[in-house]
């Protein structure tokens, strides 16, 4: 009898490892054979792969969570699923073509991406931008900030279980996207900015539409407050979760609302005003707690600050040209092209050959909707950038995630991801 | 627009690190300091802690390929920002074409972690002392470093 059992065991355990049936499973160290797991000492932790299809990961983010029961021991974000080599592509394309690429990085903040890029190229060219174009740029960026924060508030609430806010938020966002469609034809990827100015002027009656939005939107913000700010369940889910101290936040390179929620009053619009931001009156909301609830409050207040700036833009909108006075860089008006020979020649040359940018290097930072958005461009005197690097705020903010969620519950991880407001298009580029 | 440290501050820095800082270039209101790669961590830590500079935020860190026939071929570029003072400064460390290696600044700013992983992934620049130097955007089995100038824009077919 014993012998038979031994034989059976012998048969069950093949002598050559190669004939052993392998079952693959994901682990912290990559794909491994499941038989190896069984042989390992059973520890108290388990590794869970969250994403890349998980709805709360806002795109294609995968988190490798090491769990002890429900408590997160460590987190390893795994990114790169959307990597399309945009920085490489930008080296191969002309300066004016790259504006379309910037739209597709942070696709919730394309106007801001456009602005950062054109500001960097304009600094290299030392172009003077007329006040009307600057004002339109600020107007567009602030509307875009509201639209971006609307996606954040909708998805953040959805992640922690408040379903209905999402529909109200997207309803409001639709109004802003319709306005973008009016000015340039594009909604998600407008490419409205040009090196030296704007692609075209605002359409007739545009300020009426913005004023109508300004009159309607505060009611929506009040509705969000009723649904979320005063909601005890929502507050309990957020308060004291994902805390990061001011010192750590700076060391991790957090910027934007995530930094301001830790008590640092830093905003690129105020610290290094660009595109005429020094002309507008607005406050910088800050909180000191550094938790998810504080980040929620900072962004919630930023809605109203952006509304203030939008109203000032509409009230003070200067007249005049919307493009810089430089034939070699800026495309001529359509009407001029039909009547002036030299305008037609310039149009052809810029469209076909591009424009040359003098040798040099710049780093230009703006306040995107998620934090400091930086463009580092090296020009070698040709019509294509030699090197273009984008400092995406989502990329940096996500790198701080493991330090924020360590020791918290797995259910809180989704709340923290929602609170740092990431866009995977910008992270992977 | 961005402000740069004053000329006195830069002169002070050059005097303090006469061996480490090999050159200073100014253009378009921005200052670049060329730093000997061997001293990069010392210079960074000094710039972060010194009361005159207080560069507490590492805004950006990236690499650049200066060209296949260049010596030195690679550059690591650090964009520092000081939240209390409001100044920006660019540091550059130049590295040879073969086995470009530089010490990691993750001990100075934690945010350098992912920046350095991205630079390693894109240029093959190795950061010694980095806690977790792995590819970040490209797959683990990828053999090349795509932002190098000898890598074609359309990539290789066999991947």
Structural features, described:
The complex is a heterodimer of chains A (429) and B (159). By secondary structure, chain A is an alpha+beta fold. Chain A contains 19 helices and ten strands. In chain A, helix 8 packs antiparallel against helix 13 and helix 13 runs parallel beside helix 18 (410-420). The longest helix of chain A is centred in the middle third of the chain and has 29 residues, at 131-159. Chain A is globular. The model of chain A is unreliable at 12-21 (pLDDT under 50). The radius of gyration of chain B is 16 Å and the shape is globular. In chain B, the strands form two sheets. A five-stranded mixed beta sheet of chain B has the order 1-2-5-4-3. Chain B has a two-stranded parallel ribbon with strand order 6-7. The A-B interface holds A 30, 79-80, 83, 85, 87-89, 91-92, 123-124, 126, 248, 250-253, 255, 264, 266, 271-274, 360-365, 372, 374, 376, 378, 387, 389, 391, 395-396, 399-400, 403, 428-429 and B 1-3, 27-28, 30, 32, 56-60, 62, 64-65, 77, 79, 81, 83, 86, 88, 90, 109-111, 113-115, 118, 122, 135-140, 146-147, 151, 153, 155.
List keywords for this structure.
heterodimer; A: 429 residues; alpha+beta; three-stranded antiparallel beta sheet; 19 helices; 10 strands; 13% strand; B: 159 residues; alpha/beta; five-stranded mixed beta sheet; two-stranded parallel sheet; 3 helices; 7 strands
Average pLDDT for all residues of chain A = 86
Strand content of chain A: 5-15%
Low-confidence stretches of chain A: 12-21
Q: Which band does the percent of strand residues of chain B land in?
A: 25-35%
Shape of chain A: globular
Pattern of helices and strands of chain A: HEEHEEEHHHHHEEHHHHHHHHEEEHHHH
- State the assembly state of the protein chains: heterodimer
Order of strands across the main sheet of chain A: 3-4-5
Q: What is the SS-derived class of chain A?
A: alpha+beta
Largest sheet of chain B: 5 strands, mixed
Distance between the termini of chain B: 44 Å
Helix share bin of chain A: 40-55%
Q: How many distinct beta strands of chain A?
A: 10
Biggest protein-protein contact in the assembly: A-B, 45 and 41 residues
Task: Compute the number of helices of chain A.
Answer: 19
């Amino acid at each position: 009898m014993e012998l038979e059992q031994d034989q059976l065991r012998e048969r069950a355990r093949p002598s050559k490892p190669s004939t052993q049936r392998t079952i693959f499973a994901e682990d912290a160290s990559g794909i491994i054979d499941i038989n190896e797991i069984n042989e390992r000492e059973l520890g108290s932790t388990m590794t869970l792969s969250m994403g890349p299809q998980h709805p709360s990961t806002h795109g294609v983010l995968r988190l490798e969570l090491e769990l002890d029961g429900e408590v997160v021991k460590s987190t390893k974000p795994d990114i790169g699923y959307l990597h399309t080599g945009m920085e490489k592509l930008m080296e191969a394309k002309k300066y004016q073509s790259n504006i379309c690429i910037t739209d597709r990085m942070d696709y919730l903040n394309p106007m801001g991406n456009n602005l950062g890029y054109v500001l960097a190229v304009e600094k290299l060219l030392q172009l003077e931008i007329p006040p009307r174009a600057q004002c339109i740029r600020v107007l567009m960026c602030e509307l875009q900030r509201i639209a971006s924060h609307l996606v954040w508030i909708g998805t953040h609430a959805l992640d922690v279980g408040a379903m209905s806010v999402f529909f109200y938020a997207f309803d409001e966002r639709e109004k802003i996207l319709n306005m973008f469609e009016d000015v340039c034809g594009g909604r998600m990827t407008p490419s409205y900015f040009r090196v030296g100015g704007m692609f075209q002027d605002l359409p007739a009656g545009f300020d009426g539409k913005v004023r109508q939005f300004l009159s309607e939107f505060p009611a929506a913000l009040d509705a969000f407050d009723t649904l979320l700010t005063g909601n005890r369940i929502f507050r309990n889910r957020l308060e004291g979760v994902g805390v990061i101290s001011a010192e750590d936040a700076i060391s991790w390179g957090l910027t934007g609302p995530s930094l301001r929620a830790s008590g640092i009053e830093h905003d690129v619009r105020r610290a290094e005003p660009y595109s005429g931001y020094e002309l507008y009156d607005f406050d910088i909301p800050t909180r000191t707690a550094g938790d998810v609830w504080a980040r929620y409050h900072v962004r919630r207040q930023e809605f109203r600050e952006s509304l203030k700036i939008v109203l000032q833009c509409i009230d003070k909108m200067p007249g005049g040209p919307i493009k810089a006075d430089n034939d070699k860089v800026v495309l001529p008006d359509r009407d001029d092209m039909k009547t002036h020979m030299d305008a037609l020649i310039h149009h052809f040359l810029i469209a076909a050959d591009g424009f040359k940018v003098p040798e040099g290097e710049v780093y230009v930072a703006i306040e995107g909707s998620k934090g400091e958005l930086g463009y580092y461009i090296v020009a070698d005197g040709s019509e294509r950038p030699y090197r273009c690097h984008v400092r995406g705020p989502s990329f940096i903010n996500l790198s701080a995630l493991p330090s924020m969620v360590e020791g918290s519950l797995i259910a809180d991880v989704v709340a923290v991801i929602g609170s740092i407001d990431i866009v995977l298009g910008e992270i992977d580029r | 627009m961005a402000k740069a440290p004053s000329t006195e501050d830069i002169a002070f820095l050059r005097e303090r690190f006469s061996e480490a800082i090999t050159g200073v270039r100014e253009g378009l209101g921005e200052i670049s300091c060329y730093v000997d790669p061997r001293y990069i961590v010392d210079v960074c830590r000094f710039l972060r802690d010194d009361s005159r500079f207080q560069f507490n935020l590492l805004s950006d860190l990236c690499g650049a390929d200066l060209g296949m026939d260049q010596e030195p071929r690679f550059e690591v570029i650090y964009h520092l920002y000081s939240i209390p003072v409001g100044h920006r400064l660019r540091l550059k460390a130049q590295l040879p074409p073969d086995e470009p290696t530089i010490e990691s600044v993750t001990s100075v700013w934690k945010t350098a972690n992912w920046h350095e992983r991205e630079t390693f992934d894109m240029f093959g620049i190795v950061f010694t002392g980095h806690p977790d130097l792995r590819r970040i955007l490209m797959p683990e089995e990828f053999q090349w470093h795509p932002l190098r100038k000898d890598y074609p824009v359309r990539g290789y077919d066999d991947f």
